[in-house]
Amino acid sequence: MTETTHQRTLLIIDDTISNLRVAVDLLHAYGFRILTASDGESGIERAHLAQPDLILLDVRMPGMDGFECCRRLKAHPGTAQIPVIFMTALTDTDNKVRGFELGGVDYVSKPFDAGELLARVRTHLELNDLRRGLEERVEERTAALAAEVAQRKRIQTDQSLLLDLLRDQSEQLRALARQNLDAEEQTAAPSPALASQIEAVRIVLAQMDGQLETAETEPTALSADGLRRQALHALSLLKSIADALDTPTPSAGANGLARIEGDPLFQLSTREYEVLQLIGQGKSNAQIAEILVVSRSTVSSYRGRILTKLGVSDTPALLRFLVERQLGGV
């Protein structure tokens, strides 16, 4: 029997000693741990301290009656969820309705019938267990959904930032292409090899434009690695064109293809580059953590990796690096 009840704690509040003794003896015999109180005030105090699994509450008591005692128990968050079974000899329907309205879960009549009392106690303990289990599952599921939503937001943010970065790189690459193509048009008779290289640049740019247009409506279709490889290929072709024309290759700008070839910025991941930009805007670790929805320790880790990859020793050196590259709002 003890195994069935798992040593549940019951609080019995009754001012009549004989009633208390009967209920205590009966329920104790079935393995319950029993606490008692002889009035409403002491019963409320014991309920707050002991947090019983169920309360058996007499309706008629001097001073505070069972209805007021139940009302106060249900009004306090520490005892509101404890099931209350009224014990009464009253058969009046109005009193029963009032008890249910105040939060009672059931009635048991006095004098006690052992089978009825035990059945009602066990039933409401089981119902309360089911309620608690359901609440725990709801809380767990809610937490899981919240984590999933946060993860999706982070992914969408990463995709958006990546799309913006690659769009900027594409614009910078097109600017380079226009400068070189303008130079080519001024050449009297470009060689077949040079003409082939120029056409290859046009093809690569068209492919990049097509990928970016697709990414506008389908961000998940964006291939960052593929787009970067195309940008590298186009840049290599542009350098060959510039060499053939005996002209210097124009600068891509700090925010564009400077990240692509021979530059430490290209070693940064998308998220590290985003953190770097926020540092350049004067954001603190706490502000960056709030913006990116990550912990401060994660931001510190990003900051450390950025320092290592860019070959700078500390934050002042990093800020000088940003000023030289005209990055952020430093």
Q: Roughly how much helix do the residues carry, as a percent range? A: 55-70%
Number of strands: 5
Mean pLDDT: 77
Portion of residues in beta strands equals 5-15%
Number of helices: 12
The assigned CATH architecture of the domain at 2-112 is 3-Layer(aba) Sandwich
Radius of gyration: 38 Å
CATH topology of the domain at 2-112: Rossmann fold
The gross shape turns out to be: rod-shaped
Following the backbone from N to C, one meets helices and strands in this order, namely HEHEHEHEHEHHHHHHH
CATH class of the domain at 2-112: Alpha Beta
Stretches with pLDDT under 50, minimum 5 residues: 1-5, 247-261
Q: How far from one another are the termini?
A: 74 Å
Biggest β-sheet description: 5 strands, parallel
- CATH homologous superfamily heading of the domain at 2-112: Response regulator
Question: Which secondary-structure class do the elements indicate?
Answer: alpha/beta
Strand order of the largest sheet: 2-1-3-4-5
Describe this structure in words.
The protein is of the alpha/beta class. Among the domains are: 2-112, Rossmann fold, CATH 3.40.50; 262-330, Arc Repressor Mutant, subunit A (Orthogonal Bundle), CATH 1.10.10. It is 64% helix and 7% strand. It contains twelve helices and five strands. The chain has helices at 2-5, 17-29, 40-50, 66-75, 93-101, 114-185, 192-217, 224-245, 270-280, 285-292, 296-310, 315-325; strands at residues 9-13, 33-37, 54-58, 84-88, 106-109. A five-stranded parallel beta sheet has the order 2-1-3-4-5, sandwiched between helices. Helix 7 (192-217) runs antiparallel to helix 8.
